[in-house]
Inverse folding.
Protein backbone atom coordinates (compact mmCIF):
# COMPACT_ATOMS: atom_id res chain seq x y z
CA UNK A 1 0.00 0.00 0.00
CA UNK A 2 1.29 3.45 -0.90
CA UNK A 3 0.37 5.90 1.84
CA UNK A 4 2.24 8.81 0.29
CA UNK A 5 -0.45 9.21 -2.36
CA UNK A 6 -3.34 9.40 0.11
CA UNK A 7 -5.66 12.36 0.15
CA UNK A 8 -8.95 13.05 1.88
CA UNK A 9 -11.71 15.56 1.31
CA UNK A 10 -14.37 17.02 3.55
CA UNK A 11 -17.45 18.78 2.18
CA UNK A 12 -18.46 22.09 3.73
CA UNK A 13 -21.97 23.31 2.83
CA UNK A 14 -22.33 27.05 2.30
CA UNK A 15 -25.53 28.99 3.12
CA UNK A 16 -26.23 29.48 -0.60
CA UNK A 17 -26.28 25.71 -1.17
CA UNK A 18 -22.91 25.48 -2.90
CA UNK A 19 -20.17 23.22 -1.59
CA UNK A 20 -16.64 24.01 -0.50
CA UNK A 21 -14.17 21.20 0.03
CA UNK A 22 -11.17 20.94 2.29
CA UNK A 23 -8.70 18.55 0.65
CA UNK A 24 -5.86 17.27 2.80
CA UNK A 25 -2.80 15.50 1.44
CA UNK A 26 0.26 14.14 3.16
CA UNK A 27 3.41 16.25 3.31
CA UNK A 28 5.33 13.65 1.29
CA UNK A 29 2.92 13.98 -1.66
CA UNK A 30 3.18 16.51 -4.43
CA UNK A 31 0.54 19.15 -5.00
CA UNK A 32 -0.52 17.17 -8.09
CA UNK A 33 -2.12 14.58 -5.76
CA UNK A 34 -4.19 17.31 -4.08
CA UNK A 35 -5.24 18.74 -7.45
CA UNK A 36 -6.17 15.26 -8.74
CA UNK A 37 -8.46 14.87 -5.73
CA UNK A 38 -9.93 18.33 -6.42
CA UNK A 39 -10.73 17.28 -10.00
CA UNK A 40 -12.32 14.08 -8.69
CA UNK A 41 -14.46 15.98 -6.17
CA UNK A 42 -15.42 18.78 -8.60
CA UNK A 43 -15.47 17.29 -12.11
CA UNK A 44 -17.08 20.48 -13.47
CA UNK A 45 -14.18 22.61 -12.28
CA UNK A 46 -13.36 24.52 -9.14
CA UNK A 47 -11.93 27.73 -7.75
CA UNK A 48 -8.95 27.69 -5.37
CA UNK A 49 -9.89 29.46 -2.14
CA UNK A 50 -6.68 28.77 -0.23
CA UNK A 51 -3.62 26.56 -0.29
CA UNK A 52 -1.42 25.77 2.70
CA UNK A 53 1.57 23.48 3.13
CA UNK A 54 2.87 22.72 6.58
CA UNK A 55 5.47 20.42 8.09
CA UNK A 56 3.29 17.30 8.03
CA UNK A 57 0.46 18.13 5.62
CA UNK A 58 -0.75 19.98 2.55
CA UNK A 59 -4.24 21.46 2.46
CA UNK A 60 -6.26 22.81 -0.46
CA UNK A 61 -9.57 24.60 0.05
CA UNK A 62 -11.76 24.78 -3.07
CA UNK A 63 -15.21 25.85 -4.25
CA UNK A 64 -16.91 23.71 -6.89
CA UNK A 65 -18.21 25.59 -9.93
CA UNK A 66 -21.88 25.23 -10.67
Amino acid sequence: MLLAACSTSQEIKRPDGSSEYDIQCGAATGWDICYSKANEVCPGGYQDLSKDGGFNRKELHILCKR
In short: The first strand starts at residue 7 and ends at 13. Helices lie at 31-41. Strands lie at 7-13, 19-26, 46-53, 57-64. The longest helix spans residues 31-41.
